């Protein structure tokens, strides 16, 4: 199988992280414009995360069918769980921000900032385990002849 997952994961990592940076900057400078600016990378990063999750599930199936050792499958499950968690944290963040934008509830920047920081923390841990799969266990890396 072609390694689609590694082709797509870098975009949501960068975009979701940029969204959090804008949210952090909004706490100190120009809150309205920076909060709006954080929305664009959040939307694009979430779309990219959906693609990364779909391609990750496809990659997982090929790893499982290859007869990978239990240790690799355990790390793969952790990576998968953290990937799904990351997606749902940022999807929830987008939902909360939409509800606040529609004035259904009062805006609470600290809540959205906490969700952003939690999301990026889980994202970085998921990335660590993804890197471990490649660099420690060689998942998806063809043996050299």
TrEMBL record:
**Record keywords, A-Z:** Membrane, Transmembrane, Transmembrane helix
Judging by the UniProt lineage, the source's domain of life is: Bacteria
Q: Which InterPro entries match?
A: DUF2231_TM (IPR019251)
TM stretches of this protein: 6-26, 38-58, 78-99, 111-130
Protein known as = DUF2231 domain-containing protein
According to the entry, every stretch annotated as the DUF2231 domain falls at 2-142
* Native source species: Nitrospira defluvii
């Amino acid at each position: 199988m072609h390694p689609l997952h590694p082709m797509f994961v870098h975009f949501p990592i960068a975009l979701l992280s940029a969204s959090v940076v804008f949210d952090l900057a909004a706490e100190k400078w120009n809150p309205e414009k920076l909060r709006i600016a954080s929305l664009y990378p959040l939307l694009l990063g979430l779309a990219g995360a959906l693609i990364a999750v779909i391609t990750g599930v496809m990659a997982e199936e090929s790893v499982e069918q290859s007869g990978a050792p239990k240790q690799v499958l355990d790390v793969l499950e952790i990576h998968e769980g953290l990937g799904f968690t990351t997606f749902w944290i940022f999807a929830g963040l987008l939902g909360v921000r939409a509800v606040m934008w529609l004035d259904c509830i009062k805006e609470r920047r600290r809540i959205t900032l906490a969700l952003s920081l939690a999301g990026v923390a889980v994202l970085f841990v998921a990335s660590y385990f993804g890197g471990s799969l490649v660099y420690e266990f060689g998942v998806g890396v063809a043996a050299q002849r």
